[in-house]
């Protein structure tokens, strides 16, 4: 990205850029991948029990899953919250300014390369999931 827009910044033709980065659970290591798979299996088992009932109601299934996710039965040793079927704001440590370490590295390296010192504007993203 920087190769494409670096010259535009030098010529002062760009006022701002919005950059997004995403990281897979595998970026947190094998143990985190195992926890993600364990969580998926646990949810699958809850869903399967609910779906086999002849009186299955999607709202009841959602309620059962939500109750399980918010219990202490769900595996949460590696991730700081429930990861399966979810999007985490980060899988690394949080800095004092509220950014994730990955977000900070992206901003710092980009600004260093472009010679920019402006502060970032925080952005929140929402992802549609079950009512977890």
Put the structure in a nutshell.
By secondary structure, the chain is mainly alpha-helical. It has helices at 2-10, 30-51, 58-69, 101-114.
How would you describe the overall organization of this protein?
This protein is mainly alpha-helical and 132 residues long. Among the domains are: 42 residues, no CATH class; 44 residues, no CATH class. 43% of the residues lie in helices and 0% in strands. It contains four helices and no strands. The longest helix has 22 residues. The relative contact order is 0.16.
Order of helices and strands: HHHH
> Which stretches are poorly predicted, pLDDT < 50 over at least 5 residues?
none
Q: Find the structural class using helix and strand composition.
A: mainly alpha
Radius of gyration: 20 Å
On the 0 to 100 scale, the average pLDDT is 77
Strand content: under 5%
């Amino acid at each position: 990205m920087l190769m494409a827009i670096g010259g535009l910044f030098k010529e002062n033709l760009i006022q701002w850029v919005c950059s997004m980065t995403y990281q897979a659970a595998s970026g947190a290591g094998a143990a985190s991948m195992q926890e993600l798979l364990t969580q998926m299996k646990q949810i699958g088992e809850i869903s399967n029990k609910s779906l086999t009932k002849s009186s299955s109601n999607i709202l009841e299934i959602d309620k059962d899953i939500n109750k399980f996710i918010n219990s202490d039965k769900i595996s949460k040793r590696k991730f700081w919250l429930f990861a399966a079927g979810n999007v985490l704001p980060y899988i690394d440590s949080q800095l004092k300014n509220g950014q994730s370490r990955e977000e900070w590295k992206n901003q710092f390296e980009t600004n260093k390369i472009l010679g920019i010192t402006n502060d970032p504007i925080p952005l929140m993203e929402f992802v549609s999931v079950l009512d977890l």
